[in-house]
Amino acid sequence: MLAAAGPLVAVIWTSLCLRILLPAAVTFLFLADFLKNRRPKNYPPGPWRLPILGCLFHLDPEQPHLSLQQFVKKYGNVLSLDFANIPSVVITGMPLIKEVFTQMEHNFLNRPVTLLRKHLFNNNGLIFSSGQTWKEQRRFALMTLRNFGLGKKSLEQRIQEEAHHLVEAIREEGGQPFDPHLNINNAVSNIICSITFGERFEYHDSQFQEVLKLLDEAVCLESSIMCQLYNIFPKILQYLPGSHQKLFRNWRKLKSFVSDIINIHRRDWDPDKPRDFIDAFLKEMAKYPDKTTTSFNEENLICSTLDLFFAGTETTSTTLRWALLCMALYPEVQEKLQAEIDRVIGQGRQPNLADRDSMPYTNAVIHEVQRLGNIIPLNVPREVAVDTKLGGFNLPKGTMVLSNLTALHRDPREWTTPDTFNPDHFLENGQFKKRESFLPFSMGKRACLGEQLARSELFIFITSLVQKFTFKPPVNEKLSLQFRVSVTVSPVSYRLCAIPRL
Ligand code: HEM
Ligand SMILES: *[C@@H]1O[C@H](CO)[C@@H](O)[C@H](O)[C@H]1NC(C)=O
User: Fold this and answer.
1) DSSP helix/strand/coil, 428
2) Pocket probe mutation, ligand 1, options 315, 439, 460, 461, max atoms within 8 Å of Cβ
3) CATH number of residue 183's parent domain
4) How many domains does one find in the chain?
5) 418 lies in some domain
6) CA–CA gap between residue 366 and residue 385 (Å, rounded)
7) In a domain, 275, yes or no
């Protein structure tokens, strides 16, 4: 009944809105926006903006991160650019990035949260929390990831086991053209499952597939128009049907999935033998009988767990898809990689992390995949915590700060072939060479929490796959480095053939 009434309400609202409310609202908003958003003295320069929409209309919706180039040229390295109604600046160049992420980082440790995220997560968890909650949750997550074997044996073994399952799943394709997306997603999220829940799922497990689908949908829904509108008019939108309601439903389902697993853990929980992240968190919760002084409560357990999924799956999976694509596109690189694998590891055993030190070429290939893939081009946004002076400009508290990682990763002064895949960027006299202008995981106290884990996964997955297969474009299908922008920059769907090596 309600569902049927939904579209009707929407239609009435839309026509009402267009005829009466819109002209009045526009006038009011122009005024209110003007009064509210008057710029402080010495605010960074930028293109002119419309109220509410900000500068969004200036961008090419297909490639927002490329079409801004002219602004940087015109306005400089601290550029003001508003996304919808959020005042923002984009910073460019290593000197400024270092200032924001290291020297002055205490002013830039917060995350901006949209009203939508506030409604969903309310400063809980790891990625979008700030202040005391963030500090506690981050310290705990880092410590727990370490205890469950980061740098030690057990997590390495979990990654190896998963790589083995992935190899077997790909072998089943029999060398025929296939899209590796789903299998890679399953494999990568299984690593997080094993850390947080203590178990992996079979790739065909229907509940697991459902969870991955809900998460994937949630990511897509968030950029929908209704969700954007919710950020501006939450009071009205909360009563209207639309994709924002679907987003709320998805997160409710995801939370209750985790909540059920937590309850199962409680049944046979032994504080002396924590099996995984959830067990360790329950132990931390038990330490604080007074729940008002700590962030170790069930809500944060659920949100931190989901944040690990959210941050750990899409990123690593996208990078692996770039890697396989590069293998198929650059057969001469793949051959050299296979030669190094055959020399150092051979065919008789699985790759392990200790091999990494004796494999400079492999290491260079993985770094180059991350440089060219550049999957988070404007970094994850930060927020100015107190009025701050940067590069001679005043940034008021609450300003959103984006940093242009593309400008680093494609800087023609730093890279010999900035727009072409070329592992030599990371090699010198046959040895691996670190590069300063390479920051896919960002830097400083709030840099990627999963960097070590991600690097271990990339190394073991990529070497295990290229050890067993040669990746080739399907006959009559042309592969390219074309990309799609969503939460990350990912390759457009592609198919390739995995030819087993003898
Ligand atoms: C190739 C894979 C990955 C890339 C490129 C990547 C990149 C990033 C970047 C750029 C940030 C923002 C840092 C900042 O604000 O300065 C970030 C944050 C984060 N990443 Fe990753 N990440 C990857 C994999 C992972 C994995 C596997 C995990 C799982 C443990 C993870 C967990 C997180 C978390 C929890 C945050 C938020 C940290 C905070 O706000 O304190 N990431 N990541
Ligand atoms: C980031 O840098 C790249 C490369 O220089 C440029 O094309 C792009 O427009 C820049 N984006 C922003 C938002 O400044």
Assistant:
1) strand
2) 315
3) 1.10.630.10
4) 1
5) yes
6) 35
7) yes
Could you tell me the residue range of the domain that residue 481 belongs to?
Answer: 108-374+410-500
For ligand 2, atom 8, name the residue with the nearest CA.
Answer: 69
**Residue identifier of the C-alpha nearest atom 7 of ligand 1:** 441
Distance CA 56, CA 215 (A): 26
8 A C-beta contact, residue 141 and residue 429: no
237 is a domain residue: yes
Quick one: pLDDT at residue 4?
A: 43
In whole angstroms, give the CA distance from residue 458 to residue 403. Answer: 24
Scanning the structure block, which residue is given the tokens 């709320």?
248
Q: Is residue 37 in some structural domain?
A: no
SS3 156: helix
Q: 3-class DSSP state for residue 453?
A: helix
Tell me which of 72, 403, 411 to substitute to probe ligand 2's pocket, judged by most ligand atoms within 8 Å of the beta carbon. 72
pLDDT digits (tens, 9 = 90+) for 428-451: 999 999 999 999 999 999 999 999
* Torsion, CA 299, CA 301, CA 305, CA 306, rounded to 10: 0
Ligand 2 touching residue 325 (CB < 6 A) = no
Query: Would you say the CB of residue 68 lies under 6 angstroms from ligand 2?
Result: yes
Maximal CA-CA distance, the chain: 74
- Is the pLDDT reported for residue 469 higher than 90? yes
Q: Retrieve residue 474's tokens.
A: 């399907």
